Amino acid sequence: MKLKKIASLMLAGVMAVSMLAGCNTTSVDPEPTPDPTPATGYSVEMASNLSDAAKKDYIAFEDNADDLAALEDALGNMSWTTTAGNTALPKVVTPVNGWNAVDTAVVVDDFVTALDIENEALTYGTMRNELVSFKDLNAAETVKYGLLYVVDGTTVRVNKALKQVAGEIESLLEQLPNVNVSDTVTTRYTYDYTVSVSVVNKPLDVIDWYNGSANFIAVTVTRVPTAA
After folding, report:
1. What mean pLDDT do residues 158-185 have?
2. What 3-state DSSP class applies to 123?
């Protein structure tokens, strides 16, 4: 009996050692490599609301720190952000140059001057005409155009406002030309564009029945030529 007990103990010891050895040789799978951080920013978010026809391979969507700084600085000139007659802010994005509020002319002028924007009144019509209809205008130069919108920042979420902005500029982006070929051009250029979106929230002045903030949304389109 004693011999059997000793043999059983020895067998148990061998099995334990074997199990430990097996544990030491077990391979550990490496942790999976995380997916790359997805692109973020207002420019990319706005672009996500565009049709494929507006997202051409020669149009990039990237936030621009200079645009944001220029917008913040320009809005510093506004003494108040309620509309004339103390009416509420628009619930849909509205061009600042057509918005009846105090100091908007100064804001537009400062923003345009800081970024050397071609359409000085920030009008969509001028922007479209010069980039699409007169695509050979300043063909050899890098040019920048801009738009500036305002919307109620208290009740309208930024993602909804950006979707509205996408609807405003969809047609323009669909028509942006990749070349400047026309009957009057002697030198051919190919064009690449960068669309940048900046958003700044500005608190409203308190009035008796309304208090909140306004979101100002700037869109710039920069065209860079390359001699073909």
Report:
1. 90
2. coil
CA angle 69-47-190, nearest 5°?
Answer: 85
C-alpha to C-alpha distance for 221 and 193, rounded to whole angstroms: 7
Distance CA 186, CA 180 (A): 10
CA nearest neighbour of 72 among 212, 213, 202, 221:
202
Separation of alpha carbons 76 and 70, rounded Å? 10
| Tokens (6 digits) for 216 | 């100002």
Task: Show the 3-state SS of 158-199.
Answer: HHHHHHHHHHHHHHHHHHCCCECCCCCCCCCEEEEEEEEEEE
Cross-sheet strand order for the sheet of 143-152: 59-61, 189-203, 213-227, 143-152, 94-95
Residue ranges of the alpha helices (H) in the chain? Answer: 2-25, 42-47, 65-75, 104-115, 124-128, 158-175
Q: Between β-strands 189-203 and 213-227, what pairing exists: parallel, antiparallel or unpaired?
A: antiparallel
CA distance 225 to 187: 11
Which among 55, 70, 39, 104 is positioned nearest to 219, based on CA atoms?
A: 70
Q: What is the pLDDT of residues 55-99, one digit of tens each?
A: 999 999 999 999 999 999 999 887 665 554 455 688 999 999 877
In this predicted structure, the answer to whether residue 211 has a pLDDT above a threshold of 50 is yes
Q: Give the pTM.
A: 0.78
3-state helix, strand, coil in the chain (%, to 5): 40, 20, 40
